[in-house]
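Researcher: Predict the fold of YlxR family protein.
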Amino acid sequence: MAVLRTCIGCRSRADKTTLVRLVATGGPSAWVVTPDERGSLPGRGAHLHPDPRCLEQARRRRAFGRALRVEGPLDTGPLDALAETWNSPE
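Model: Structure tokens for YlxR family protein follow.
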């Protein structure tokens, strides 16, 4: 049986294995949105399709803070670095 999760960008449900899990690391003064490729980092997770359109929708909707239940500034640097590989031919 497939485990379904909702993408925080497009809000569609998809199998957990097709989505990228994200967690908030750091602390209250500076949270970092970190991709959790192994699915083993502690904390509340959010899921996102590996698609630049979903990433842009999540940013526009300001979904990261709500989905991860954190307040304050969010650094998406590690996520942006991963997102650059989504468009690259392999």
